[in-house]
User: Fold histidine kinase from Caulobacter henricii.
Amino acid sequence: PIWFESTYKRVAGAERELLVTTRDVTERKKLELELTRALGLAQLAVAAKSDFLANMTHELRTPLNAIIGFAGVLKGSTTLSERDARHVGLIQDASNTLLNVVNDVLDFSRLEAGGVELDPQPFDPREMVASCAALIEGQAGAKGLILEVVAPDDVQAMQADAPRLTQVLLNFLSNAVKFTNSGRVTVVVDQRLDGEQGMLRIEVRDTGIGIASHQLDGVFERFSQADAAVSRRFGGTGLGLAISRRIIEQMGGDIGVYSREGEGSRFWFEIRAPLCDLVPEAPREDPA
Ligand code: ADP
Assistant:
């Protein structure tokens, strides 16, 4: 395995900007592992903890799915009074929220334990951004927000784990919509050549409530909610950005945020990955 580690740095002279840099710390980790192996204990504790979390979340998910499923069946019943149908709707909403929390905890504990394998496949970044935007458009529209995508025409396909990048981008986007009351949410896509590889940068800008300078440091930490009172009102697990950070870390990329309280935020990530063709080349005909 390869290990990455992030460090947080204030951008010099820019009090409101936080940069998360990721470094390959495989060598150091290997050394540490050898040490813990020698001690035999610490590693066991980590494995037991993530096993426990995985089992527990699984045990929670099964009955939750039953609740969601049967609430759906009930909702379809024609004999329900209007009031009962509303209550069944509330059961559905609450259990879906709980399922999201459980899934986040499971995902986070897997990522934390290094148990998530990336699956790099050719994908079209523009298509990925467009489908994420389409998913979030309804929520943005309901709040009267303008949602726009700015991307160059000549973005090339790349080889990376698109579902995991989608997860990060959707997280940025849903936060942007959640914490913005008026104005716009803009996704800016940039792609450059970086040596042999391609560099992809995606930034989500919003005109929302922003994050206070002293709270910026914590936003990529687990269970961090910049403003407890505000966040409680909006819901959420406080795990989304911590999960996003782990994903980008595992890809060896960078993730960061620039934010001004009362003016808005810009959440971005950058990854380096091979550029490629989308359609695999057709097998060459035998000249003979
Ligand atoms: P949550 O589930 O609470 O949204 P996240 O990890 O996604 O968890 O975000 C952590 C916290 O960072 C949020 O609760 C919020 O306080 C802050 N935050 C994230 N994105 C934004 C944004 N676009 N604008 C303002 N605050 C944000």
